[in-house]
Amino acid sequence: MRPLLRRSHPAGYSFIDVKSSQKEIPATALRLRARHWPVLAVALATLCASLRLAGQAASGAAVPPPSTGGFFPLSQVHRGLHATAWTVFQGTQPEPMDVEILGVLRGSRGPGQDMILAQLRGAKPEYTGVVAGMSGSPVYVGKQLLGSLSFRIGQFSKDPIAGITPIKDMLEVRDLPIRGAGSAKPESAFSGQGIRSDGSSPATPSAPFQAMETPLVMSGFNPAAIELWQQRMAGTSLDMVTAGGVGGSSTAESGARSSAEAVEPGSAVSAQLVRGDMEIAATCTVTYVDPKQLLACGHPILQAGPVSLPMTTTEVVATLASPLNAFKIVNTGATIGAFTQDRESAIRGVFGARARMIPVHIAVDGPLGGKKINVEVLDQPSLTSQALLITLYNALLQNNQSTADTSYHLTGTIDLDNYSPVPLDLWVSAGDAGSSSLQLALLTADRFAKLYANDGRQGGVRQLDLRVEAIPHRVQVQLEAARIASGDIAHAGDTVTVEATLRPWQQPEHNVRISIRLPSRLEEGNVRILVSDGGTLDRTLNQPRMGSQEQSMNSVLAAARSEHATDRVYVTLLIPEAQAGLDGQALTSLPLSMVNALEPRRAVQDITLNGESAELAGEAPGGGAVSGFQILNLHVESGSGLH
Hints:
By secondary structure, the chain is an alpha+beta fold. The protein has four domains: 5-58, no CATH class; 63-355, no CATH class; 358-471, Ubiquitin-like (UB roll); 476-637, no CATH class. The N and C termini lie far apart (129 Å).
């Protein structure tokens, strides 16, 4: 008997060509090969699915069905039902995948929220597995939309099994009222710690069902900045960063294709968190399209409710297969609208809407010249401060001015609606704890967050204008000692000279003399004199508050505008008179009756009380970032003194 011929299938199986054999196959041979029949059955099923999809392509049906074909009822879903899913593996054209329904998991996504379990068939999905960025891929039974691929099952799984979000849950997001994208006000703030973007706990071995990750493209970012982002986003699905780039003009609204013609079910789309000279964008797949809007993802990005994020077209450059972390490599494209809702079952984008973004202008100057960076960051309490932190840190890193010994001096303003601009004046010296560029970015983001996240803020943020001077050496100046050069006995109204000893980094120490005039109201007794840096003076004027109540917006604004420069030495009189802090302002030399009136209100109002009044009496340049303080004692005698 001539040996049986074997022909190779693209999926890797070998098929026996029975017709090529001139003699009958003995029964014993069939029995010996019985163990191969399960493998052969799977191979034949795969081949049939491939031939069916190829037939659809040949007949001109290689485009996903429109969203107007109706919806397949969840009540009719059963095991063995066959469907077709569409997603982009490369380029912009969605490709079909055969889907076999395994069953319905009742309440697996929450009370009353079911998940359809399915297995993907075909050479590509069986090779790549369930891919990050595939979430939202529409699943059709015939031309009726069943739902979207949204969940993956565990890690290192051998079978491409996915969870489908039923379309009925996604349509609830579609039917929410459409408001102006720029006026969307988030319902809740997301801390970015300890929970995933879908509201669940971080993935554990006992929780195999996970929303497919929303891969982020971070274009123009230094690896250290990307690592910092992943640390800050740990425990969320926004910590997965993939390769990609900016494929089109994403900073301007697209006029040519700002409608449903730009995308179709199965297309990739991106939501931009940062755009401009740098970009951070999250990518998923379109499930549903109508003339006004689209639904995508099948799960949330932040679950922040109303949002305002630019929506762009997306090109898939390649799909990377990996047992641990398969994802799509993409280029973002032209802006076609804005995402306005971020809910449990879907995100919604409105065609032609304009997202509300915050412009950030960063200019870095130094001995080697200057560099300007312009970006826009999302206006979302859960992430805006983090986005500002990463963009400023990256701007400092990707600059020839930056070295291990570089210090920074940042000035600028935060422009808020309904308020006058808030100034920034920050110093960070090389050699302080950690990287100076990181410390400056953290300090700036913290100052911004105190204003941005304050409950009393009314109106939006117009822009941030930041100017950074890079100084190629350490600027630390230590306040070593201080003394009263004119003697430690004086009279009210006298002029007293204070001498401070300053020691710059690896330079000889030098003395600075500051003359101050004592108030004529001083009575006989001892007066303390504080010689200090600006930070110590600010803490003296604004004493710690009772309780944990948040500062009012007025207090934060007053404190920001009254901050003292870091590169100066200050001499402050600590007069034995009552002082109160009210709405961020220090009220000195208060009468006892006012102190008694304010005391009962300390627990419920932003009020502090202190037994000494701090009055700034004099200051002098420090030549760098001054740190340290000294307390001097001066005895005031009665009488007019000698002049």
